[in-house]
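Why do we bother with holo predictions? Because pocket geometry can differ from the apo form. Keep that in mind while you read this record for iron/sulfur cluster.
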Amino acid sequence: MSQRQHRVVSGARISGRLHVGNFLGAIANWVRLQDSYECFFFCADWHGLTTGYEDTEAFMQQKEETFLDILACGLDPERCVFFVQSDVKEHAELYLLLSLITPLGWLERVPTYKEQLQQMTGREITTHGFLGYPVLQSADVLLYGGELVPVGEDQLPHLELCREISRRFNHLYRPILPEPQALLTKTPNLVGIDGRKMSKSYGNEIPVGASADEIKQRVSMMVTDPQRVRRTDPGDPDVCTVHRFHGFFGSEQATVAQGCREASIGCVECKKRLAAALWEYLAPIWERKQDLRENPQRLQDIRQEGATKARQVAQDMLVEVRSAMRIG
Ligand code: TRP
Ligand code: SF4
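The structure, written out:
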């Protein structure tokens, strides 16, 4: 268990109900890592606010829901520290201190910044907070002395910046901050029910907490091979979303692909089998979610204990940081 010494830190940005794309891409990985490393995982609600600062009420509900969803996915508060970012105000202090030493040019160069500015038309995100997004993310990681950060490829520029900030701090003051490395999660190319990238903003997602009925309904809406009009027409599974999903869930992908090409299986049957496979996969999550929902006190306790454990580590780090900067 010598690996246990390595600190793993990662956050999930809140943006609506957790879906199976989030699960396969990140949370399933967290669940695996909690046994091998000393892990700090959190709901990054302040990060969500950088773009969602207008409708804060809806946002609060999403935060509760995401916390619940992630626990239901199998994260065990006994084996990792799991908390909500805004419950640990120390993130804000380190964010401020790091922002003092981060040149504006570094932030303006972050590729995700420019991309998002272009994509998010209609929302006013030319804000200080949005530009500072990666500084807050750096604080999240460095606050716990994070060495390994499980993230998808899209987050690599943020980690690069985190290392740069860390090096600058260590050079200016005292070498106390680590230079965290990405623990690259292979993000499976899971699409939504309409064949585009699974995303809440497209409304094409399958939530991890979906009930059996909801799954059936979502699967029934999935796009299939558009050329296959009649049941007797042979189809091309390679262009079909249902077929792709069969590859991620259950064991029938090869069978249905052959049946589709030979027209021996219809789309209705094919979808029925997928819905069954998905439900088999998601039922334990759904059940755990019901259990937790029925016990709000326990949920409250988990959240508080997580924050308390995180705060202890965070406060120690801040003592070091302030002392290195000679500000207390
Ligand atoms: N920016 C990350 C994302 O969008 C979420 C995040 C916030 C994060 N703080 C973090 C990830 C710290 C890793 C470490 O996915
Ligand atoms: Fe898609 Fe299945 Fe229909 Fe083939 S049979 S087009 S794989 S849903």
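The chain has two domains: 7-190+295-325, 212-289.
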